Amino acid sequence: MKSPVRSFSAPALCASVASLLVLTACNKKAPQQGAPPPQQVEVLTVKPRPVQIRTVLPGRTEAYEIAMVRPQVSGVIQKRLFVQGTDVQAGQQLYQIDPSIYQAAYDSANGQLAQAQANAITAKAKLERYGPLKAAHAVSKQEYDDALAASRSADAQILIAKGQVENAATNLRYTHVNAPISGRIGRTILTVGALVQAGQSSNLAIITRLDPIYVDVNLPAISLLRLRREVAAGQIHTNADNSVPVSLELEDGSTYDQVGKMQFSEVNVDEATATIVVRAVFPNPQKYLLPGMYVHATLDEGTNPQALLVPQQAVTRNSHGDPQVMVVEEGDKVAQRAITTNSTHDSDWIVSSGLKAGDRVVVIGLQKVHPGDKVTVTPFKEAATPDAQPANTQPSDAQPAGASSSDAGKN
User: Are 266 and 277 in contact, with CB atoms under 8 Å apart?
Assistant: First the structure.
């Protein structure tokens, strides 16, 4: 018996062939893609160069001397004897207070002194007469003692009267309100005709001595220790009196034409900010500097002949705020390196530790690489800068008037 022969229609045969082709395509593996090429970065080869080191500290100017002019006696102001905003000299009369009642008190005190002196003459003459009589027993001892006491009492009254005269003369003199110091006087607070009181809290005017003038800066305490070591080692040039010269940059970027000197520092460190106030004094003959101006004091620390510089854009910070860089080591592999910086030079950091000459620091492409990555290296094109340019050491946290600060060596 013959086996039945199955017949297939043309559409069914086409569908079977199509299914077979789909299964065959699915069973084929997708071709593997090649590994990505190494990331391209630009690196700077660190080379030592001479750099002039300068410490730049923000600060404010303070008056060398300042005096609040206030009345010492009560009365009505009769005259104002100065021009507002001009220079005055110590002892120059500024105001005249009505002296009439103080003149009368002075005259009365002089009269009482004259009366006391007359009484003393009488008492002394009586005592001189009683001396021989007492020796001859013509007067009693009690009468002589009374004459002696009266003479001494008269002398005491003279002293009291002299004190009253001096007090009255002082009050009369205080009706002339004089300048206690030399300097520039500001506007008058009270005008002619105003009633003033002795011991009042409000000022008549304020006199400020502008030449010389102070500049107060806040310096991290650890930086002060470093500067003192450098002065002791002779790295920082000093004047003949062993003071450290300081230059000044004004708020508009101009340089002040007078050179000052460090005068002293506070004896206590601010516990909240770890800073100490350092005061410099500057000549100010033209009265160009005024109290309260924001300035930058610059301290020359000499030249570092082997300074290592890296661009600021190549430096990042870890979670603790410590600076670090990416370097390309042997085999063109990236490694992370912790560094220490203590100053800036233009747009570069001066590295004090963590790098050595010849190290290759990643500058461009820093965000695309990680430690251990293999990279393709091209040189970083840095701007040409002449040698021995000044480097500004400015602690990033140092601010005037008690702002917070930290060790500049960790910046």
Answer: yes
Phi then psi for 30, rounded to 5 degrees? -70, 140
Name the nearest CA neighbour of 349 among 389, 380, 388, 309. 309
Average the pLDDT over 18-38 and give the result.
55
DSSP strand pairing (48-69 vs 389-393): parallel
φ, ψ of residue 381 in degrees (nearest 5):
-90, 95
- The residue length of the chain stands at 411
CB-count exposure of residue 363 (10 Å: 0-12, 13-18, 19+): buried
Task: Write out the E strands in 179-244.
Answer: 183-185, 195-196, 205-220
Helices (H), 194-270: 221-233
Query: Is the model's pLDDT at 378 over the cut of 60?
Result: yes
* Predicted confidence band of residue 189 (pLDDT cuts 50, 70, 90): very high
Q: With contact defined as beta carbons under 8 Å apart, do 116 and 154 qualify? A: yes
CA distance 143 to 149: 10
- CB-CB contact of 307 with 47 (8 Å): no
What's the average model confidence in pLDDT over 11-20? 49
**pLDDT exceeds cutoff 90 at 245:** no
Q: What is the mean pLDDT of the chain?
A: 82
How far apart (Å, rounded) are the C-alpha atoms in residues 253 and 257?
13
Read off φ and ψ for residue 21, nearest 5 degrees: -65, -40
- Give the pLDDT confidence score for residue 230 in this predicted structure: 72
- As a whole number, mean pLDDT of residues 242-262 equals 87
Q: What φ, ψ does residue 215 adopt, rounded to 5°?
A: -130, 115
Q: What is the largest CA-CA distance in the chain?
A: 197
Decide the pairing of beta strands 275-282 and 260-265: antiparallel
Side-by-side strand order, sheet with 93-97: 176-178, 93-97, 75-80, 195-196
